[in-house]
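Here comes an entry:

___
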Amino acid sequence: DDEKKHSALVLQFANGRRIHSMSSNPDAQAGKRGSRVLDEFALHPDPRKLWSIAYPGITWGGQMEVISTHRGSKNFFNILVREAKEGGNPKKLSLHTVTLQNALDDGFLWKLQQSLPAEDERQEMDEAAYFDWVKSGAADEESFLQEYMCKPADDDAAFLEYDLIASAEYAQGADWQTPEGGTLYAGVDIGRTQDLTVLWVVELLGDVLYTRHVETLKKMRKSEQEKVLWPWFARCARVCIDQTGLGIGWVDDAQDRFGEYAVEGVSFTAQAKEALAYPVRSRMEDRRVRIPYSGEIRADLRQVTKQVTPAGNIRFTAERTPDGHADRFWALALAIHAADGVKAQPWRPLTSAKPAGETRTLDDDWIPQDA
């Protein structure tokens, strides 16, 4: 109903029954009785709120079906699954699990092949070959296990939880690449053969950084990469570049062309990585960064883990894969660092006291003389 601005779609049958197709806004569930299906439940920005509003709708009869893959071990969907499996099932859920292997065992591939064109490569596959084909196309092992094998990713191992990443993503299909007149900043993680070169451009509007461009380059000569990167550097107020290894030459050339203030090189020491990583998390927690809805980006952000050494030092690590070495994560971190306009410094804990009459603040790095 364009006139009343109603977004719900209703299909009414001769017997008076209706099917409502509604938006994902939890408030759309309020006041409606009867059975309901919540699809892609874990992908919802707030699945717990959606459940809390939808569940009272079956008080007078009907059932509620929740369909989803996992989105990390701390997502409310996985809490429901664990309650049903391990917690005595207090909600009396009927849990049904279908993995890719289950589907193949039940004849899924044969059914799929009946609907595919004769020339499709999957026509010649058996179940084992199709399983490997799907697995090889997944962003990484964690994504495959979660999306196809119903095994939630471990949020305690990764630096960024799935829910946190999802909260920072644009809506699927949104137009996020058009700048709106704010200031542009960029971060570049340098690669050549195994690792990717990734350019990440953000626009500062108010206190929020909106991603406007992400470019990945692989196995390209430096001169060819420059043809892609230099025009973006010219549009940005500040650019931060990974100057570890190959990056040293990149920083020199970029500073010669665009100026030393406009281009900062950042060496990826353990201390610098710590200083770069935490602002990514804090901006996501504060809803002050927006990133594209992308499986490759999500997988890269999930690759980074925080480890504490026996000496108490913090290390940020990532497994090297055919698609890089968490290069998109570090490009985003560098872009945020460029926008913040400060050099990467190791974090130091604040002391618990100061001399009488001096005020201690969160930005204070005061160290007593006898420290």
Q: What stands out?
A: The first strand starts at residue 9 and ends at 12. The first helix runs from residue 47 to 54. The mean pLDDT is 84.
